[in-house]
Amino acid sequence: MSGIENTIKSITDTIQSTHDNNINNNMNTIKFKGKNTIFLNGIEYKGYNVGDLPNSFGFIRKNNGFDDDGDELYKYGKSHWFNFKGLTWIEPPMKW
Question: Fewer CB in 10 Å around end: N or C, the chain?
Answer without folding.
Answer: C
